[in-house]
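tokens incoming
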């Protein structure tokens, strides 16, 4: 059979993109796992940073803003679609947390950094205006801004560079400035005008589409008691419309204010415990009809027109993420774009004000994919950026969702990646639990999984109990089960694949990051007989220390309560205190600039393992963070991972 070429072909003014078969990725595919080495893709290819992340179109559709990879590092950039201009914005040793267009010329970005404050380490956030034409940066916070200064509430719709910004003016909870005020800020000049003074207990404010602050969430300093404040317009005072206490009691917070001042949309569970989108009457405080829900899954949230603040669709993740477009024009646009591209999934990621220019992502779970620009005038589709400059649109290893039963009968969805060209039988296995644990895996491009499959391993990523997206009852089954039933769910995935003949149960390693790194620690400690080895990247080894670290953040008391519900006895399920029980070799990797899980979590674990005489390797990444934002750190990790697996669980 003749192979399809990897190409962009123009026909009738429509660009057709075809994903390349795996045979073109490097060499001829292996016939089985034993021969997989002959078709290996270079490690450096998998370590490449995505060329572009999070592209957002300007209102006029002439520029996009996003993160660009340049020489192994990520930079924020504003780029003209006609390639006439590009501004790279250096933000120093700060996290880039978000970005938003204000008008065709100005953007606002949110940055953050951990800094020493009165003997403690605090995470400080700020907002900066950026001129897309010149790269000029304007600090938008006043000199007296406290810990949190980067909360964007609203951007003007009339073309002026105005925003609403909430910020603290004190770090001391007994001072009025501790509670955020809201200012209207001119992004071009940095000038402020007060809109709302801080109100005791209210940390989060929300505005409607015309810039009226209509809602606030108040909480006690420990976060355990919460209340929802609401007003219909700027002339009316706020009133409390809902209260909540504890980890199981949630506020019913509007997701979108509708044009009718008394109407909104809310996310709320249906009678089976799955979140859906509902109409809500802000006068009677009654839920109306359901707008959208998906049987068996939670919705992710509404997709809102950033200019008109109207509902366009609902995001949902079943086996993979998608958008159900409720707006007829967007539904028609999605159908048209999907028709232009064969053999791939099409996701609308950004659009300009009148939807005449659209950025789409083309790809699937076996290919890194690319971004394209669609123009309604002429119906043209042009490439914008390949996510992987070497692989481009080439497919590698197939990915699918499977289901298995945990030992207590709970249904578990898991994402399985198999080496292309293998028999799919009796393969060495990598068990890869996701981080979070309040997260989930889906069918999407994952450079870890594809790298491991390329080396001949089957990779299974279970959505163990406590994973999000599968309903409230599934979440609640994780309570009290950190390191226990949650760990059993992982082990049961190995059994399920062994029973099906896919995996060799004698050739299994557990590999994970963040919470997944914790699960790798715990697996090596509790269930070492099941694994030839374990790998932890940025893993948590001591739950008590992690809770103490998180408690420095506002609302930390509620977080501590939640953690105690998941693991009533921290010490019993913290691998740090059971080093003598480790019974399989483990590779530990951690970045020293990790702001999510402190580097000390891995360092202490390594010290305890050394004292106990257990086999381990510990790699410090001096410039590494929690999210692998540097290509150099990705590459060093993959090389260490490959060498470690070759030593203890060769494919």
């Amino acid at each position: 059979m003749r192979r399809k070429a990897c190409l962009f072909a123009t026909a009738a003014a429509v660009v057709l993109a075809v994903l390349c078969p795996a045979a073109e990725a490097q060499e001829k595919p292996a016939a089985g796992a034993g021969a997989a080495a002959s078709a290996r893709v270079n490690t450096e290819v998998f370590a490449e940073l995505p060329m572009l992340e999070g592209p957002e179109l300007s209102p006029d559709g002439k520029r996009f803003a996003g993160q660009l990879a340049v020489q192994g590092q990520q930079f924020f950039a504003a780029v003209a679609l006609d390639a006439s201009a590009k501004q790279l914005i250096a933000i120093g040793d700060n996290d880039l947390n978000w970005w938003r267009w204000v008008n065709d010329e100005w953007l606002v970005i949110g940055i953050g950094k951990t800094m020493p404050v009165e003997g403690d380490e605090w995470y400080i956030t700020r907002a900066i205006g950026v001129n897309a034409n010149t790269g000029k940066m304007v600090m938008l916070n006043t000199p007296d801004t406290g810990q949190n200064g980067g909360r964007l509430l609203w951007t003007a719709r009339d073309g002026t560079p105005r925003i609403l910004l909430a910020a603290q003016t004190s770090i001391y909870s007994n001072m009025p400035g501790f509670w955020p005020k809201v200012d209207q800020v001119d992004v071009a000049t940095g000038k402020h005008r007060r809109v709302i003074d801080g109100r005791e207990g209210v940390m989060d404010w929300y505005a409607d589409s015309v810039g009226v602050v209509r809602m606030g969430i108040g909480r006690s300093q420990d976060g355990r008691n919460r209340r929802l404040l609401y007003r219909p317009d700027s002339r009316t005072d706020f009133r409390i419309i809902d209260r909540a206490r504890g980890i199981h009691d949630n506020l019913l917070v509007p997701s979108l204010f509708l044009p009718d001042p008394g109407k909104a949309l809310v996310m709320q569970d249906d009678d089976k415990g799955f979140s859906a989108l509902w109409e809500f009457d802000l006068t009677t405080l009654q839920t109306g009809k359901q707008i959208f829900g998906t049987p068996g899954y939670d919705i992710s949230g509404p997709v809102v027109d950033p200019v008109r603040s109207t509902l366009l669709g609902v995001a949902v993740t079943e086996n993979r993420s998608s958008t159900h477009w409720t707006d007829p024009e967007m539904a028609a646009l999605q159908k048209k774009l999907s028709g232009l591209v064969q053999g791939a999934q099409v996701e609308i990621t950004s659009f300009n004000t009148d939807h005449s220019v659209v950025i789409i992502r083309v790809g699937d779970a076996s290919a890194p994919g690319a971004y394209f620009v669609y123009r309604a005038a002429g119906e043209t589709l042009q490439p914008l950026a390949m996510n992987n400059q070497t692989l481009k649109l080439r497919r590698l290893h197939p990915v699918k969702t499977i289901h298995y039963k945990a030992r207590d009968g709970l249904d578990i969805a898991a994402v399985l990646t198999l080496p292309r060209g293998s028999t799919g039988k009796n393969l060495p296995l990598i068990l890869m639990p996701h981080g979070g644990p309040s997260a989930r895996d889906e069918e999407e491009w994952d450079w870890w999984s594809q790298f491991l499959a390329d080396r001949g391993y089957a990779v299974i990523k279970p959505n163990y109990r406590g994973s999000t997206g599968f309903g409230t009852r599934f979440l609640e089954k994780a309570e009290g089960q950190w390191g226990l039933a949650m760990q059993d769910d992982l082990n049961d995935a190995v059994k399920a694949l062994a029973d099906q003949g896919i995996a060799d149960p004698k050739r299994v390693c557990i590999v994970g990051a963040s919470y997944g790194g914790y699960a790798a620690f715990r697996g090596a400690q509790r269930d070492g007989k099941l694994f030839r080895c374990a790998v932890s990247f940025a893993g948590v080894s001591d739950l008590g220390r992690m809770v103490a670290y998180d408690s420095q953040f506002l609302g930390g008391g509620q977080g501590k309560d939640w953690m105690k519900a998941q693991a009533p006895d921290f010490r019993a399920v913290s691998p740090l205190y059971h080093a003598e029980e480790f019974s399989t070799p483990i590779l530990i990797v951690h970045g020293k600039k990790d702001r999510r899980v402190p580097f000390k979590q891995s360092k202490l674990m390594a010290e305890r393992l050394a004292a106990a005489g257990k086999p381990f390797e510990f790699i410090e990444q001096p410039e590494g963070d929690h999210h692998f934002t540097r290509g150099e750190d990705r590459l060093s990790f993959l090389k260490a991972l490959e060498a470690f697996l070759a030593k203890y669980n060769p494919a």
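note: Residues 1-18, 22-38 have pLDDT under 50 and may be disordered.
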